[in-house]
Amino acid sequence: MSDLGGASMVRQNPRRVTAPEEALEFETSKEVQVVTSFADMGIKDDLLRGIYQYGFEKPSAIQQRAVVPILQGRDVIAQAQSGTGKTSMIGLTVCQTVDTTSREVQALILSPTRELASQTEKVILAMGNFISIKVHACIGGKSVGDDIRKLENGVQVVSGTPGRVCDMIKRRTLKTTHIKLLILDESDEMLSRGFKDQIYDIYRYLPPVLQVCLISVIPLPRVLLEHDKCCLCTFLFNTDTCET
Ligand SMILES: Nc1ncnc2c1ncn2[C@@H]1O[C@H](COP(=O)(O)OP(=O)(O)OP(=O)(O)O)[C@@H](O)[C@H]1O
């Protein structure tokens, strides 16, 4: 997509799945389709089984818009309120994206807190129940030896906090050569405060061809959209804020 100015955005009528509250709007890049069923997202059968077994019947509003662009390999900014299914969406897209026959790390998810990184690991393990996905939560406060053992045994996904992930990369225990997808959860947090330098530090070790997804609760600066491939899926719960 080359034009991300106002003209390329479309507003869609609100259709919230997870919380039937006041009228809400979406702003998306214009080519974003609303896909209302997991079965129509091109998801592999064994993963679909895992999703249904996990108790999901229908994608939430943000999932209906952002899952397919992520699976298409687009760089995506997905912004939506807390509790709207963003973490689950990360789990689902990562499970679909990685090759579970490989032992290489292919997806790296960075979160600002240990709890969130662990939660994401659990979602991936639960949804990926039938695809034998190997994921490791690489977080501070846990044994470094354990990290090393797990990573050396081979995992396809790392869900971690920036400090420990950076440490593992610098020790060459976490090999970055095959990483094709970087997801920053709560990226408003990750790109502010003390995390920014750590994120840049990690980014330097990642392959030049990389899909990046930014997941956020609050709208991110517009400047992040200004590159050709970026796709926006925003849940507009405060129109004024998002227009600036
Ligand atoms: N499609 C879905 N169908 C049913 N339940 C869902 C769906 N997507 C997410 N949920 C459930 O909704 C709750 C919130 O989902 P999730 O944690 O993914 O949202 P979130 O936007 O990341 O929220 P937070 O910012 O609070 O972490 C969880 O209990 C999750 O299992």
Automatic annotation (TrEMBL):
Which residues belong to any copy of the DEAD-box RNA helicase Q domain? 36-64
Q: Does the keyword Iron-sulfur apply?
A: no
Q: Which Pfam families match?
A: DEAD
Domain Helicase ATP-binding: residue ranges: 67-237
What domain of life does the native source organism fall in?
Eukaryota
Q: Which UniProt keywords apply?
A: ATP-binding, Helicase, Hydrolase, Nucleotide-binding, RNA-binding
Q: Where is this motif: Q motif?
A: 36-64
The Swiss-Prot or TrEMBL record annotates one GO molecular function as: RNA helicase activity
Q: Enzyme group, top EC level? A: hydrolase
EC number(s) stated in the UniProt entry for this protein: 3.6.4.13
InterPro entries with a match to the protein in the record: DEAD/DEAH_box_helicase_dom, Helicase_ATP-bd, P-loop_NTPase, RNA_helicase_DEAD_Q_motif
Family membership, please give it.
Belongs to the DEAD box helicase family. DDX48/FAL1 subfamily.
The name on file for this protein is: RNA helicase
